[in-house]
Each structure stands twice: as C-alpha cells, then as structure tokens.
Write a structure and sequence with these properties.
The protein is an alpha+beta fold and about 150 residues long. It contains six helices and seven strands; from the N terminus they run αβββαββαββααα. The chain has a single domain, classed as Alpha-Beta Plaits, CATH 3.30.70.3270. The strands form three sheets. Strands 4-5-7 form a three-stranded antiparallel beta sheet. The structure holds iron/sulfur cluster (2 copies). One iron/sulfur cluster binds next to helix 3.
Length: about 150
C-alpha cells in the first residue's frame, strides 16, 4: 500500500511538472555553441574572390579515424581540387578540425540534414563552404588572423 501511494505521488508530481522535451520539429532547442554539427570549409578574402583556407595538405584526411575525407591538391596552387566529406561515415569527432594546422575547418551547429541515398551524404568542397552560413559568420572569421 505504501508503495502504491509512493508511486501515485511520483505520477502526480510528474503530471504538474513542465516537460523537458519539446515538440520537434515544430519547436527546436537552441544548440550549444560547442554543439558538433556539420563541418564547414572556411574561406578567406584575397582581393578578387574568396579562396579556401585549405591548402590541401591532407593532414585531416590522414587523421580521420573513419577515412571519410578525400583531398586532392590543384597542380599549380595550394588549393583543393577535390575536398569532400562522406557524412554517411563521419562520427563528428572533430579530429579533422583540431588537426588542421591552417584553421581551415570549423564546426557548425547545423544538424538537420536528411537524405535517402548514401551518395547524398558525400559533400563536396562547394557544399562544405556552406556559403549562406559563411556570410553570416563573416564577422567572426574577419576578426581572426588569416593564414
Ligand atoms: S582542411 Fe586543413 S588539414 Fe585538411 S587538407 Fe585542408 S589545410 Fe590540410
Ligand atoms: S569529424 Fe571525425 S569522422 Fe568526421 S570527417 Fe572529421 S575526423 Fe573524420
């Protein structure tokens, strides 16, 4: 009997407590600044047009535990010809970001991305630059020393 009363007390208490869950996707919780979402390939301004901060050294690809980064360097410049991340294998460990000596990668808080095929999750360098987010984050990037 005492057990039953205790149980009912817990149920009643929960009934009048505000839920901690939200009605996703109608309501969304704010992601913490250190939330680990999609990776962004950063750009830098060089007069005419922005270029990738990435010099295609391949260090991130060598350190990626999932082998999901592909990098190929342009023949005559320190820019990536190919840079892609296969998100179907990525575990969002951010080792690539921490191991890049040029600060060419950063983590965003973008986490909503769905697709139906594995190929869809291979993001190329243009998609990884995340232009619309890049411009929004421009002030942040401008205040940092460009490499
Ligand atoms: S992102 Fe950084 S570590 Fe990876 S290839 Fe580019 S410069 Fe090198
Ligand atoms: S976050 Fe981790 S698994 Fe994903 S690409 Fe970077 S190093 Fe690889």
């Amino acid at each position: 009997m005492i057990g039953l009363i205790k149980g009912l007390k817990t149920t009643l208490k929960a009934f009048f407590t505000r839920p901690v869950t939200v009605m996703y996707p109608y309501h969304k919780m704010e992601v913490a600044p250190r939330g680990q979402g999609l990776i962004r390939l950063r750009m830098k301004e060089t007069g005419d047009k922005p270029v990738y901060k990435c010099v295609a050294c391949g260090i991130c690809a060598k350190n990626c535990p999932q082998h999901c980064i592909t990098v190929e360097k342009k023949e005559d410049e320190k820019q990536p010809l190919v840079y892609s991340v296969n998100y179907s294998m990525c575990i969002f460990c951010r080792i690539c970001i921490d191991s890049c000596p040029f600060g060419a990668l950063e983590q965003t808080q973008e986490y909503e991305w769905v697709g139906e095929t594995r190929d869809y999750f291979i993001r190329d360098k243009e998609a990884l630059a995340m232009d619309e987010v890049f411009h929004e984050a421009g002030q942040v990037n401008d205040s940092e020393e460009e490499v």
